[in-house]
Amino acid sequence: MQETSTFSTQPTDLAAFAAHGVYHGPEVLSAPALEDAFLAGFVAGLEDQQAVGVFKAAAMPAGCLRAAAQDTLLAWFAAALRGALPLDGLLLSLHGAFAGELDPDLDGQVLACARQLVGPDVPIGVTLDLHGNLTARMVANADIIDVMHTHPHVDQRATAARVARTLVATVRGQVRPVIAAVKLPVITPAETQISAEPPLAELLALTRAQEREPRVLHSAVCAVQPWLDVPEMGWSTVVTTDGDGERAAACARALAALAWAQRHAYTRRCPTYLEALDAAFATTAQPVVIADLCDLMTGGGTGDSTWYLRELLARRPAAPCYVTMVDPEAAAVLAAAGEGAEVSIALGGKQDSVHSRPVVVTGTVRRVLPVTPGRALPASIGLTVTLQSGNVHVVVFERLGPGADPILYTGAGLDPRQAKIVVVKSVVDFREGYRDIAPLFLLGAAPGLAPTDLLSLPWRRVPRPIVPLDPDMEWDAQQATVWTSRRAQLAGAPRAAGA
Predict the structure, then answer these.
(1) CB atoms < 10 A from the CB of 60, how many?
(2) Are 280 and 191 part of one and the same domain?
(3) What kind and span of H or E run contains 69?
(4) Peptide bond between residue 86 and the one before it cis (omega within 30 degrees of 0)
(5) Where are the extended beta strands (E) located within 295-377?
(6) Would you place residue 490 in the very low, low, confident or very high pLDDT band (cuts 50, 70, 90)?
(7) Which of 12, 368, 370, 420 has fewest C-beta within 10 Å?
(8) Do residues 459 and 469 touch, judged by C-beta distance below 8 A?
């Protein structure tokens, strides 16, 4: 699993997966692998069925997977799956936006590989992220597809459990799932894709209404993360029904029609980082969480944008302000200096040198946090150091981390409730982590690898025409091609007696 940004300056290699752990066979069903919400959901949904671990590998969002790493990763997966055979069914937790230098649709390749190995009769159930990019190959090789309904993403476990239950029912012959999907020529900014707010809330309400129909097993939208320049790019709707291909297609078309009608509602002006800081300092609310969304650590940003850091240092705030920075070189230097050391160091602007440049910070090393057992911070972010310059507190990481999670500050000994401003490298998911901490959320765009202005990106591979690159194009969901799963051709056959 990876959410790839093809515009990232940092290609993905095997080390990116190693940072989060690569697990084979039985390791998948034990800690820490089983702490993954999707895997835990699969196991819960299987109930009394025997679960067999196959393979787990995940990396933080970054650029395309290098060719050599792709060959190795897929070879590991294939070997692990062969070793697990025979199986009655297979569950795959994918993101849906995993791209490589050799193949822009790695999720589709994983599914095709799985189908070849398990054969035509073993059902495959798949979970996808709301921001996955569904492809024809994925639909053709799956039997069940379900997608998270929430952003912030809080239903991973529930989604996985639903798919697992459907897979068990399929193995038992109680249901015969068929899939229909429609690809829309639409890309939208990520910051307005909030599942509890319109327009996305209205679309997701329709998916839930469809799921209340007797033969609709799963109904979903893939709203696709917008920093993916690949040939099959675009929103999708996908519906899995119990043996009713016509109803699946009708539901997928209805969802697509509503999504198309809403297409322009997602594009709104985003305040600049300066405007966000002005607003934060002008209010009495505390803390104010500001999303440095164009340096989104879970969307291809490198986490080392310096625009907020530079401005906070210049403003010399009277109250504490927190910001994070991914800078492995600086983390090592600061750790070597030790706690209490007075230092002057160039921070950030090294991985994404296109949009940022380093900022010299003079301050005191407050905490050095190596990766040790029991540390509150995620091990995957590596060595972590806190540096204080006046009231500006910088948490420096060795590697990318979960930008939406307050643990990046609390685990480093900082209390967000005591800060005036907390800068997060997130776009929407931070709303969940900080909902009980902060009374005010703001967005502030600074130059970065995950821009809100999609027209500013150098698109080369997306299908044309597509909104917003071609805003006046025409499209009709009722005339669109419907992708179907391999079992859809049997959708009209009667179900077995007693099933």
Answers:
(1) 23
(2) no
(3) helix 67-84
(4) yes
(5) 321-326, 342-347, 359-369
(6) low
(7) 370
(8) yes
